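Re-run with default settings, no changes from the original entry. Doing this only to confirm the output is reproducible before filing.
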Amino acid sequence: MHADHDPWQTGLAAVDVLAVSAGGPQLLAQRQRSRLMALLDAARAAPVYRERLAGRRGEGLLDGIAPIGKRELMQHFETWVTDPALRLDALQAFVADPSRIGEAFDGRFVVWESSGSSGEPGLFVQDARAMAVCDALEGLRRAPLNPWRRWFDPWCLAERIAFVGATTGHFASTVTLQRQRRLQPGLAQRMQGFDFLQPLPELIAQLHRHAPTVLATYPNAALLLAEEVRAGRLRLSLAEIWTGGESLTEAMRTEIEAAFGCPVANSYGASEFLAIAAPCRLGVLHLNADWVLLEPVDERGRAVPAGVCGATTWLTNLANHVQPLIRYDIGDRVTLHAQPCGCGSPLPAMEVLGRSDDMLRLRDARGHRVLLPPLALVSVLEDAGVLDFQLLQTGERSLRLHIGVGHAAHEAHRAMQALREYLARQGLSDVRPLLRRGTTHHAGRSGKLQRVMSQCER
């Protein structure tokens, strides 16, 4: 048995997930309260939380607990975690090695890194108990897009799954993919990841060889592939498309579904909690409120009423006791709805404004349009070692890279070189980005800093 996967705990979590899904508001409230009390007790072992939680034993209440952010937690990493085996230097060395993606750290922990979208990268650690909850939620709360296919094949044994995204870093999606392949060797050939940083013709050739029936990717990457379908360069027979990691607008959904001829579902997750919300059969997002709490708040940290979109959101992860997250400022703008959904679920219906970076549409030397997904560009620049940046498209063949003044000159040079190399791989070697010091700090509708923006008319 793999130490980061406990079938017994996964089974118990699955039974509980099903029970809450079929239960009512009272059962949900009971689960929330008991799990919040257990989390607060466990978090007292972490010095970074001890003062915040003073005098709250037995209450299980969040009222009055000061929120906390990624930067503060990462600066006090070893007083944040509750297991002495979790040393920051060892974890950083672990995630610096791409050959270890999907392995268990210390034989016990699943580890992934977050992007530096807030200016601070994060490291997030889960034990077998937390992963059992995640596995149960991912497996049981995602409404099937093709119910008849799931009825005849509930374990997806006939499916071929392709993940298109950033595959060379220890990011949550890639770690999850490789972990599943490790735990279930029979899936290894049918579930594969494909790097969206490679030249598009190579990606298309790989997808044709794999011939997936299910595509998992980011909304903007799905949009890019939909353009290739319409151009006749990509031919896939897909039954379902799963997206996440960015906002999926109705216009994007319509375009993607029309191109591929299959339904699209967009879930909501984060490095801090992988399975925050999943769509029901009506397409409405439902918060997995038995295992994660979200508190939308205004600019002054005051709770907003149901139906009102907050300026930011505080997240409390009820499943993870080795790296507690209590009133963690996740930065997304969330709306929780007071009215129950027509699907009958007791879980709260919600909407989220996530990442709002732009797809860049450039022209190559022959005048052909080339689409660049924002998360691919972010990955290139973060891999080059810069976190505080904005990339602006100012024309069909012109880009301007703004790098924060906190980055040294050699870091800016390395980022520019990485960007030029990526553009050349996409057939855009004639696009010469300009470098500027300092960022504009323009926020999108989500409230998060837009790191990739187009200033061109569509």
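The longest helix spans residues 25-43. The chain has a mean pLDDT of 89.
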